[in-house]
C-alpha cells in the first residue's frame, strides 16, 4: 500500500499496489475517518493501464478496480454504503451493470445506487463506477 501524506485534518489518499495508476490531478481514493471514497473506476487493466475489450468485461473490471481499493483498507463490497454508476447507453448497459453487480455481491442487500446516463466519459469509455465504503479505523 502506498499511502500518500495526509491532509492537515487527517484525510489520506490511497494508491494500493496492484491498482491502476492515477494520471493527472486525482487520486484513486481517500480515507476520511471511518469512510473510504473511491474515485470513478473504469474498465482499465491495472497491468497495462489500458481499457479492456468487451462491454461486460469492462464493467466487471471497473467494479474490480473499485473493490481492490476498498479491500486495501479492509472493506469489502458489502461495506459499500453508496454507489454512483455512469454509463453512455442506459438501455444497452444497465442490464450488464445489474448482472455484474449481482455476480459480485452475490445476493441482497445491495447498496444504495444512483445510475446515470451521460453523453461522454474519459477516453470515450462506456462505464464508470464510484463508491463510498464504511471501514472503521482499527484502534
Describe the structure.
There is one protein chain. The protein is α+β, with helices and mostly antiparallel strands and 139 residues long. 24% of the residues lie in helices and 32% in strands. The two termini are 19 Å apart. The mean pLDDT is 94. The protein contains two helices and nine strands.
Search tags:
single chain, alpha+beta, two-stranded antiparallel ribbon, 24% helix, 2 helices, seven-stranded mixed sheet, 139 residues
Radius of gyration: 15 Å
Strand order of the largest sheet: 1-2-3-4-9-7-8
Q: Low-confidence spans: pLDDT under 50, at least 5 residues? A: none
Number of helices: 2
Summed up, what is this model?
This protein has 139 residues and is an alpha+beta fold. 24% of the residues lie in helices and 32% in strands.
Write the layout of secondary structure elements.
Elements: E1 2-6, E2 12-15, E3 29-32, E4 35-41, E5 44-45, E6 50-51, H1 55-71, E7 80-87, H2 90-105, E8 113-117, E9 127-134
Helix pairs in contact: 1-2
Amino acid at each position: 500500500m502506498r499511502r500518500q501524506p495526509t491532509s492537515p485534518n487527517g484525510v489520506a489518499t490511497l494508491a494500493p499496489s496492484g491498482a491502476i495508476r492515477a494520471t493527472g490531478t486525482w487520486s484513486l481514493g481517500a480515507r476520511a475517518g471511518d469512510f473510504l471514497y473511491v474515485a470513478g473506476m473504469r474498465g482499465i487493466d491495472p497491468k497495462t493501464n489500458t481499457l479492456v475489450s468487451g462491454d461486460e468485461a469492462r464493467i466487471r473490471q471497473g467494479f474490480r478496480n473499485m473493490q481492490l481499493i476498498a479491500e486495501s483498507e479492509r472493506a469489502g463490497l458489502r461495506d459499500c454504503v453508496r454507489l454512483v454508476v455512469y454509463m453512455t447507453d442506459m438501455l444497452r448497459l444497465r442490464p450488464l451493470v445489474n448482472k455484474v453487480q449481482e455476480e459480485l455481491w452475490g445476493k441482497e442487500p445491495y447498496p444504495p445506487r444512483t445510475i446515470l446516463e451521460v453523453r461522454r466519459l474519459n477516453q470515450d469509455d462506456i462505464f464508470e463506477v464510484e463508491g463510498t465504503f464504511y471501514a472503521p479505523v482499527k484502534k
